[in-house]
Amino acid sequence: MRMGTQSRQYSCAASAIPITLLAVFLVLATSPQANALPAFARKYGLRCSACHESFPMLNYFGQKFKDNGYQLMNDRDAPIWQNASYWPITLRMTPFWSRESVNKVAVDTAPTGEQKITTTGFNLGGLDILAMGTLEQNFSFQLVPSSDETGAFHFEAVNVRFDNLFHSPWMNVKVGKFELDSFISEKRSLTLSGSGGGYQLFHFIPVGDGNIFGQVGDNQLGVEWMGHSGDDRTRLSATVFSSTDGNVDLPYGQNSYTAFFAGSQAFSAGRLGVQRIGGYAMYGVAPTTFLTSGGVPIPGSGIGNKTFSRVGFEGLFYLGQHVDFQVFTQHGSDSAWFGACYGDIITGTCDPASQNNTTGALPLGARNPTWNGAFVETHYVYSPQLTIFQRSEWVRMSQQAFATIPSNVGDIDNYVVGYRYNPFMTSRAGFAFHNEYSWIRQRGTSPVSGTDLSSNSLMLGFDFDF
Amino acid sequence: MRTRLHKSLLGLGTVVMAFPLASLAQQTQSDLNARMGMESHIGKVTGHAKNAQYDYRRYCVGCHGERGDGMGENFPWIDPKPRDFQLGIFKCRSTPTGTLPTDQDLSDTIARGLDRSNMPQWNTFTAQQKADLVAWIKHFSPRWANEKPGTPIEIPKEPEVTPERIKNGREVFARVQCWKCHGVTGEANGPSASTLQDDLGRPIAAYNFTDGSRPKCGTSDQEIYRIFMTGLDGTPMPSFADNIKPDEAWDLVFYLRALMSQPSKEKAMAKQLGLKPVDPNAPAGQQ
């Protein structure tokens, strides 16, 4: 019985993968990461390149600016210094052409039930309305309404930050919805394409896993303390947030929280430049049991919290003025309950009928799913206007939730290469030709045969903001 | 004394004005290329101008311009205006007025930034980056090809602050007429404040000691001492090295601290003394 349950779980999960990948493709293809703000450039008269290694990835100076609460600390950060017509808002959107290909899609008419599908065409990215800055000296804010390409809006980020409390750069408190503190930021990733735009490790959940929340990539609702040295070489932060994956209205657990810690240290390596190394750790709980009404789970009623954790290393290394690479690793572990697909019965990942933890009995043989992963992203910055980049990313399961699941199911390989060219660079607006190719494969997750599922994407984007 | 001071200011103004006039001829690209081998020496680090091209383009060019003439794209929109490196005149120096700053001075300015301006604190640069940028800045002006930096002024050891010294500092403040620009309470509202212009004829504000902002060229007692003993070249703020003795200069530092809004022992002492603002109409020596 229990083995049968496992098989069903695995089969259900496997069939959901192409849909998930397609959804991921659509989301990534249509939601370019955006954070560079010409509004800041207009306010301070600095070009994009002052803060961005290549838009939108921050360099050391940009990171310091952000850590200071979007302040240069030159006594002119308060909006009262600006012309009254200044409005701290930037709009960003990306029309693009792309070729998308998935090797195995469930097709009714295909002899094997699966078929390769390749699509080309013109498309639009989502719109980001980026408002950030200061309300007064040492009072910062961030408000980012964001839409997909159809115009459906949500709040990507909404927070206020109290900077330099007690005149100390070590005392900064942020409340609201925000990105977890990491100097390697997916929100500032250079990659945009459908199959490789996001960092896989920032969203990885094992196949069939029911964890409502468990990854570092999405913006979260909570409170963050962040401190840094005056020159920003040392950075530390601690965050507590609801285990809701950033969703509003407390849809899941009655009392489920997650803690995230990050720290890093930068040091000078002579002519090579300033290097930064650090790490992060996340430990949280999420519900596995929900009250139901008419068999339907009641949002916000979740109890039976189970644990999950993520830890890893981060590094940003410069090899002179033109070459840098960043390294990110992760060791992840979920409770066996999540591995057995208890947890998310609200959005339908798990079956509310059979996977609502009302008995407290774990399925026989269930184990904590664990995995390891890493990526290396290299940038050749020919000039502030031209950057060539690549990223190689690997995720490997080290223990499946059940011994019957092949050891490599869910493993991911992802490779991205591209360039970004700004034909002009001023302190008023930004525009870039963005050309990128990405390829991704996840083991054992094709919808019918359960073999490897891969997709690739070629995009030519016209990324602008003002 | 007042006559001597005025003569001193006049002479100083003439010297300071002479440099921009001599340098007004715009530097051509070939002029700049000829000085591409410029070096800087800061501690054990040697900077090379040619190595700073990339960083200058990334961080500085938007304000200071491709040729260092301060005519970057932001020139029309920001105030104070970006420094014109071709003139070879700098506010923040450890060297006497009219002389070139040391490499260390320029490096310190890069790292410290300039408050109440668009120049941020570039303390994220490595020592090598700063040294290279200093060399790059120097290559814009022919002055460095023909002159050596001045010798940094000597700053005597800071004495213990006492109520008596703060009172003496008030006397100095009145005698050398700081109040004409900075106002009797240090609020930058002296009778000359609204007429101030820099050497290029642009309006410029006197420093307001009371609004909590930081002095442009540093916040330590030594740096404040240095500001009025070297002057801020290119601005109406002269050097008072000929008018204020070193011991008096420390007294003035203590009095200026008492004017500032930031809490300090000088401020507490001045409050205890019940010090009133200087009286511009009081006879000399009778403040």
Name its key features.
heterodimer; A: 466 residues; mainly beta; Porin; 16-stranded antiparallel beta barrel; 5 helices; 22 strands; 11% helix; B: 287 residues; mainly alpha; Cytochrome Bc1 Complex, Chain D, domain 2; 2 domains; 11 helices
Task: Please describe what this structure looks like.
The complex is a heterodimer of chains A (466) and B (287). Chain A is mainly β and 466 residues long. Helices cover 11% and strands 44% of the residues of chain A. Chain A has one domain: Beta Barrel (Porin), CATH 2.40.160. A 16-stranded antiparallel barrel of chain A has the order 3-6-7-8-9-10-11-12-13-16-17-18-19-20-21-22. Chain A starts with a helix and ends with a strand. With 287 residues, chain B is mainly alpha-helical. Chain B folds into two domains: 27-146, Cytochrome Bc1 Complex, Chain D, domain 2 (Orthogonal Bundle), CATH 1.10.760; 154-273, Cytochrome Bc1 Complex, Chain D, domain 2 (Orthogonal Bundle). In chain B, 41% of the residues lie in helices and 3% in strands. Chain B has helices spanning 2-23, 29-34, 53-64, 103-112, 127-139, 143-146, 163-175, 179-182, 221-230, 246-259, 265-273; strands at residues 39-42, 45-48. In chain B, strands 1-2 form a two-stranded antiparallel ribbon. In chain B, strand 1 (39-42) and strand 2 form a beta hairpin. The A-B interface holds A 44-47, 49-50, 60-61, 64-65, 72-76, 230-232, 268, 270-271, 273-274, 321-322, 383-384, 426-428 and B 54-55, 57-59, 61-63, 73-74, 77-78, 113-124, 126-129, 213-214.
